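Let us walk through a complete example step by step. Step one is to write down the protein sequence. Step two is to encode the small molecule, NAP, as a SMILES string so that its atoms and bonds are unambiguous. Step three, shown after the inputs, is the structure prediction itself.
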Amino acid sequence: MKPTLKIAIAGLGTVGTGVVALLRRNRTLLERHAGRKLELVAVSARDRNRTRTIDLDAVAWHADPVAMAALPEVDVVIELIGGSDGVARQVVTTALGHGKHVVTANKALLAHHGTTLARLAEAKGVALGFEAAVAGGIPILKALREGLAANHILRVCGILNGTCNYILSQMRQSGRDFAAVLAEAQGLGYAEADPSFDIDGVDTAHKLALLAAVAFGNSVNFAGVHVEGIRHVTALDIAFAHDLGYRIKLLGLARLTEHGIEQRVHPCMVPLTAPIAHVEGVFNAVMIEGDFVGRVTLEGRGAGADPTASAVIADLLDIATERGAPGFGVPASALVERATSPMARHSGAYYVRLMVVDRPGVIADITAAFRDEAVSIEQLLQRGRAPGEAVPVVLTTHDTEEAAMLRALDRIHALETVIEPPRLIRVENL
Ligand SMILES: NC(=O)c1ccc[n+]([C@@H]2O[C@H](COP(=O)([O-])OP(=O)(O)OC[C@H]3O[C@@H](n4cnc5c(N)ncnc54)[C@H](OP(=O)(O)O)[C@@H]3O)[C@@H](O)[C@H]2O)c1
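Step three: the predicted structure of the complex.
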C-alpha cells in the first residue's frame, strides 16, 4: 500500500467545510478508490474562533496559511480561500514551489494566473487540479481532458453561473423585472450582497477562460473574453423570447474561428429545442461539441458546499492514485498562444427590440437601414397599436457579421421615431 497522503486545507468557509465533511463521511469509499489512507493534517482560516460545522480538534490549526503550505509533512494543499491574488495566490505558489500538489476551486486565481501556475507545477513535477473552479460539481474538465480527448473540440458553451440562471429563471416565471428578482435572490442567499462579479458576467468569464483553455489547448486568455452581464435583460425581452420560441440565458461560449479564439459571455436567445434552454434555477450546464462525438451536455449543481467538495475530492483522488492528464489536458509547455477573434467579426443571428413611435413609414425606415447594411431580417413583429405613441417592434435576423449589425443599429437609433437605444441579444444556434 502506498504511504498515507497528507492533506492541508487553506480556507474553511462554504467549500472548505464541505471538503472536510466529505473526507470524513465518505472516508472508507475514498480510501478504497485511492488505495491508500488520506489524512487531513493541517488547516488554516482567518478566524480560529469562528463557529464551524466541523470538528477540528484533532487537526493542527495554522494561523498562517502560507507557512502551512510549506510544511514538510504535507503532500497536498487544498486552497479554498478565493481571490485572484493576495493570500490565495501566495498559498498556491508556495505549495507548488515546495513541490506539493495543489487542488483549488479558485477560478479567479486561475483565470488570471493559470498558465504561470501550471508551468510552475510542471517544473516541480506536481499536479494542479481545478475541476471545482468550473461549473462546481459537474466534472466537465475531466470529461474534456479524458473522455473527449480523441476529439477536436468545435465549441464549448455553458450556463456557468447559478446566480444569473436563478435570476433569469425567476424573471421568466414571475414576469418581474431584474431589480426585484435580484433583491429577492439576495434575501434568499442566492446572490451576494455585492453581486457584480456574478451579474456582470465576470465569474462566468473566469470559468469560460479555463474551459476554453482545456478545450482548445491554449494558454488561459481571460483578457480576451468579451463580457456582458444580465443587468439590462428586461421582463419585456423575456416575454418576447417566449413568444419567439427562445429562453434567455447567460452563456459562456468559446470556439476557434479563422480570426483566432472567440470567447464571449453575454445573454443569449437559446432555442427551446436545445437541452440547455431547460436548465433552470441555480443549476449549471455545459455543452461540448466534438468532431467525432457530436454534442455532449452535462448538467448539475454548479456551486454549494457538497457539489463543489465532490469536484475537489475527485482531483484529490487523481493525485492519490497518480493518474490523470495535466490540469489543462496537455503539458503547460505545450499550451499555445492564440489571437483573440474580435467581436466585430462575430457572425450569428440577432434579436433586436426597438421602441418606436407608432406612425406610418417607421417600419420602412427600419428595414431600409438593415437593407443598406446587408442584414437580412428573418421575422418582424409589432405587438399592439397605439397611434402616435411608443410601441415595441421586435425582429430577428439571419446570420450576419456583428460589425454590420451594429452599423445598422446606429442608423436606426438616429431615426427620430426610435425613442430608446435598440436592445440587441445574440441568438445561439444550439
Ligand atoms: N461557494 C461555492 O459554492 C463555490 C463553488 C465553486 C468554487 N468556489 C470557490 O471556492 C473558493 C472558496 O469559496 P467559499 O465560498 O468557500 O468562500 P468563503 O465561504 O468565503 O470561505 C473563505 C475561507 O477563506 C478563509 N480566509 C479568507 N481570508 C483569509 C486569509 N487572509 N487567511 C486565511 N484564511 C482566509 C476564510 O476564513 P474564516 O472562515 O475564518 O473567515 C474562510 O474560511 C473561492 O475561490 C470560490 O470562488 C466556491
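Step four is interpretation. The chain has a mean pLDDT of 96.
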